[in-house]
Write a structure and sequence with these properties.
Layout (H helix, E strand, L loop, with lengths): L15 H4 L2 E4 L6 E2 L2 E2 L3 H10 L3 E6 L6 H10 L9 E3 H10 L7 E5 L2 H9 L3 E3 L8 E4 L9 H11 L4 E3 L5 E4 L2 E4 L1 H12 L4 E2 L5 H11 L4 E5 L2 H11 L2 E5 L6 H5 L9 E3 L13 E3 L2 E4 L2 E5 L4 E5 L3 H16 L9 H7 L2
Parallel strand pairs: 1-4, 1-13, 4-5, 6-7, 6-8, 8-9, 9-12, 13-14, 14-15
Antiparallel strand pairs: 2-3, 10-11, 16-17, 17-18, 18-19
Helix pairs in contact: 4-5, 4-8, 6-7, 8-9, 11-12
Bound molecules: magnesium ion (MG).
Magnesium ion binds next to loops.
């Protein structure tokens, strides 16, 4: 199913952590959830790193500084330096710096992560539309961002000052449920001004470029839990990806994925980085993986056999994506997924 022309490691049983030089890991739903490490993450990352894989953490959240993210990961038992963290704040700061004069003032609607990233590029964060900014940038500001900040952005954007957004994720998970993300905040200014921002974060190319520039990765593997950010970002960057099922994506969403949302590999959790990924073979119209055989029937996906549930999902992905071609699979997958408990 890979678009890659390179030799994929499953043929040799080689672990992904050996086949790729750098893991570009999403955080929420991959490494931690609600502040706590996800099962098997700490040990799996330690083993991958001990084997020589570079680990980098790539987040669309522009609120926290790389230092703060690294501190959190280290506390969870994943020793991380600030240089191992790449944020959408850094990506948007570079994007702005390429379009405004050196040392220019930038009106910031967001948090400390954004201000630090702008200063790193030699730009001067300012707080008011009256400060003569050369650009406006919006990043996630947390729950205490005052409503008046959107007015400040709108005054400048309506005057024609170039507008940038770190990312446009509409929601952000919190311990208490789903909260509005930076994409919702961007929408407020969009409604007020009718303007469109330039966006840096996943799945767009500025974020992937920032990640490659900062890590020097030559053979990266994107590891994520979201199809429309992590996996699409890998697709746009033309690199391989591993989807883990510890976050927001379920089996039904994966089977219905259009081409740009289809990961190279699927696994239950980060232990999948340490193993060779089994090949899916075609056998008389069926797609076999482990003990499972999947096929596209009349109106539904069929699954026979038994074994590891994730092998069944891999077989179903091959059947669904082959049936869908460049579109999305509309075959009913409920019964097949129920057999896998997914
Ligand atoms: Mg995530």
């Amino acid at each position: 199913m890979s678009r890659s022309v390179r030799t994929r490691p499953e043929a040799s049983g080689q672990a992904l952590s050996e086949a790729y030089d750098t893991a570009l890991l999403d955080l929420d739903g991959v490494v931690y959830a609600g502040g706590n490490a996800i099962a098997h993450a700490v040990e799996s990352l330690a083993t991958a790193r001990a084997g020589g894989m570079r680990l980098a953490y790539v987040t669309n959240n522009a609120l926290r500084t790389p230092d703060a993210v690294a501190g959190h990961l280290t506390e969870l038992g994943i020793p991380t330096g600030a240089d191992d963290v790449i944020t959408s704040a850094q990506a948007v700061a570079r994007l702005i710096s390429e379009q405004v004069p050196a040392g220019a003032r930038v009106l910031v609607i967001g948090g400390e992560g954004l201000r630090v990233a702008l200063r790193e590029r030699g730009l001067e964060p300012v707080e008011s539309a009256d400060d003569d900014p050369a650009a406006v940038v919006q990043g996630f500001g947390g729950p205490d961002l005052p409503w008046g900040r959107f007015a400040e952005a709108s005054y400048a954007v309506a005057r024609g000052v170039p507008w940038f957004a770190s990312n446009t994720d509409l929601t952000i998970p919190s311990g208490r449920g789903i909260a509005p993300g930076n994409g919702a905040a961007v929408q407020v200014v969009r409604i007020a001004t009718g303007a469109e921002p330039q966006v840096a974060g996943k799945p767009l190319p500025p974020m992937h470029r920032e990640t490659i520039l900062r890590t020097g990765a030559e053979r990266p593997l994107v590891v994520g839990d979201r199809l429309d950010t992590d996996i699409e970002g890998a697709f746009n960057g033309e690199v391989d990806s591993l989807l883990v099922l510890t976050g927001v994506t379920d089996g039904a969403q994966l089977l219905a994925a259009p081409p740009q949302h289809r990961p190279t590999y699927v696994d239950a959790d980060l232990r999948g980085m340490l193993t060779g990924q089994p090949e899916v073979t075609v056998d008389g119209g069926g797609f076999r993986c482990g003990g499972w055989t999947a096929s596209a029937g009349a109106g539904s996906l069929e699954l026979a056999g038994d074994g590891e549930p994730v092998d069944g999902l891999r077989a179903l992905c091959a059947a669904a994506w082959t049936a869908a071609g460049e579109g999305t699979c509309e075959l009913d997958a409920d019964k097949a997924l129920a057999r896998l408990g997914l």
